[in-house]
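Q: For a teaching handout, I want to show students what a protein-ligand complex looks like in token form. Below are the inputs, and the small molecule is flavin-adenine dinucleotide. Please produce the holo structure.
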Amino acid sequence: MSVLVFIETEEGKIKKSAREAISYGAALGDVTALALGTVSQDELATAGENGASKVLHVSDERLNASLIQPYAEAIAAAANATGSEIIVTAKSSLADAVVGRVAIKLGASLVSNVVALPDTSNGFQVKRSIYTGKAFANVNLTTDKKVLAIKKNAIEVKTDGAAASVEALSVTLDDSLFGATITSTEKAEGDVLLPEADIVVSGGRGLKGPENWGVIEDLAKTLGAATGCSKPVSDMDWRPHHEHVGQTGVKVSPTLYVAVGISGAIQHLAGVNSSKYIVVINKDEEAPFFKAADYGIVGDAFEVLPKLNEALKAA
Ligand code: FAD
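A: Here is the structure, written as tokens, with flavin-adenine dinucleotide included.
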């Protein structure tokens, strides 16, 4: 089966979620990866470690900004050029906007939030996460072409492949596709952006006030993490609104989510249940968050965090 995997890059590096998508595709068939915009050949060749046999590169500089229409056009063109039956990508805010357009252009069926390899014993059935991870739906796809967007952290990254060959792909992208362009970008506060962070240290009302956030920021700095918070914390202006995690805030999918002084209300959990590992620090051993935790520390945040931080720095 011929599989095209669209890989997102960030600051010249292939995103971890894209490597998960390549690993997913490699379990289905022969993977050609597709990269858009400026990325080094050396970096693209590393897609082979995750299972891509070849990488097609559309190096058009206009694609350095993630633009929905030209991206959809380029992905569909690459799918046609390679005769791919399955088009895979990682689910992301960009992919959410692009994959529907790709599916329409290709006459393909589409499933997003995919969490497992398809069951092909009777057709082509994929499992997707629904209701913010509280339930799953099995979806049967009957079209020849299929577009799958894979949920972050659902697939182990394969790392035992050899370097992939990298080839330039020329795609005609009409100026009319660039009707909306990004003129400049600016980073929000903090070194690591929350939605894409691999590690998040988040604080709740248990931190008592904004003046105590130093313990969260110190731990985040040591771990190279983004900082997050619960909704009441941002409602009270202890922290900026863009740090608010949960059903009504940012949904994160880090490898590690550290929740400090957060009770674990269902609306908060809805934003973090795609995390690979959850560590909860709370002084109340009955706090509901412990039920969702992989590891828990029952203790006062103001005693635990400095000790944890020192231990991690020494490690
Ligand atoms: P609390 O519930 O007050 O919990 C504080 C925790 O800190 C407690 O468990 C306590 O034991 C612990 N603690 C106290 N002192 C210490 C200490 N010294 N050391 C360690 N632990 C300590 N919430 C969100 O977060 N995100 C959302 O997106 C969201 N959306 C919502 C949408 C709706 C429609 C509604 C109704 C609510 C929503 N909420 C959301 C609010 C949610 O229901 C909870 O009220 C909120 O998550 C609680 O925040 P918290 O855990 O910080 O505070």
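A: Two things your students might notice: The mean pLDDT is 95. Residues 68-82 form the longest helix (15 residues).
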